Amino acid sequence: MDVPDLYPQIRHSRTADEVVQQIEGLILDGILRDGDRLPGERELAQRFDVSRPILREALKELEARGLLTSSHGGGTFVADIIGQVFSEPVTELIARHERATLDYLEYRRELEGLTAELAARRATDTDRALLDRIITRMQTAHEQGDDEAELAADVELHNAIGESAHNIVLMHTMRACYRLLSDGIFYNRRMLRSLPGTRERFLEQHLAIHKAIIAGDPEVARAAAHAHIDYIMQAMREATRVDEWSRVSQLRLRQREGHAGAGRPSRPRQDEPAAEGE
């Protein structure tokens, strides 16, 4: 099968508006991502088969819309538009309150279920091949004890499932969720994975989601995605308890060591008068 050109020739009205629509479509469909660099002006004009003045006009319009950024001599890049789904003040506000973080996970649970269900219904052969490659990398990283590679494959898998659902709004919403997941905004994935048995459970759950999508079973895919987030919520509560236990234990030890160094003051017996001046 021939691979389509990312920047095909414009065959009808060779105007700046047509170029704008072509590039907007690539961003909307998630083909061009934030940080992706566009080809140089000369190459891009040739591939679109438009004049360089028309191309410049189109790029200028896309910059004005906040979709592209450019620097003199540095090239033109897709702007970071994903983070705008969750504004920074709202993100920081949620992160400061545990109950809000749990609401975020509840929200993600429903989105993950819908995404997995749609992916099971709509994934193409290309989508399934990509999911196979990612899950293989995840298993290899797990077997080798490469936690960083496994964490990266985790986010990549969820992103690929979002793309396989073939719903533009859902895809961009989920990318925003996974950006927060990658950055460790609402909870520390490494802390969760340090709990006994958690890494193994996460792998099992990802394998179950992958298997259901590849098999084209929407109901099982949704249930597997829900079970994954349910386990994260449970592990998060457990990690919070363990962290609190550790904090209290350290304070107790510090208090004991302080008494041992200074000598614990004796309390007067109840039948003895307190010393004068006390």
Description:
There is one protein chain. By secondary structure, this protein is mainly α. 68% of the residues lie in helices and 3% in strands. It has 11 helices and 2 strands. The chain has helices at residues 16-28, 41-48, 52-64, 88-95, 98-122, 125-144, 147-164, 168-183, 189-193, 198-215, 218-262; strands at residues 68-71, 75-78. It has a two-stranded antiparallel ribbon. Helix 5 packs across helix 8 (168-183). The longest helix is centred in the C-terminal third of the chain and has 45 residues, at 218-262. It is globular and about 80 Å long. The termini are far apart. The mean pLDDT is 85.
Give me a quick take on this structure.
The protein is mainly α and 278 residues long.
SSE succession: HHHEEHHHHHHHH
Widest sheet: strand order?
1-2
Give the percentage of residues in beta strands. Answer: under 5%
**First-to-last CA distance:** 93 Å
The largest β sheet comes out as: 2 strands, antiparallel
Task: Give the integer mean of the pLDDT values.
Answer: 85
Fraction of residues in helix: 55-70%
Shape: globular
Q: Give the helix/strand class.
A: mainly alpha
Number of strands: 2
Regions with pLDDT < 50 over 5+ consecutive residues? none
* SS summary, helix count: 11
Radius of gyration: 27 Å
Multimeric state: single chain
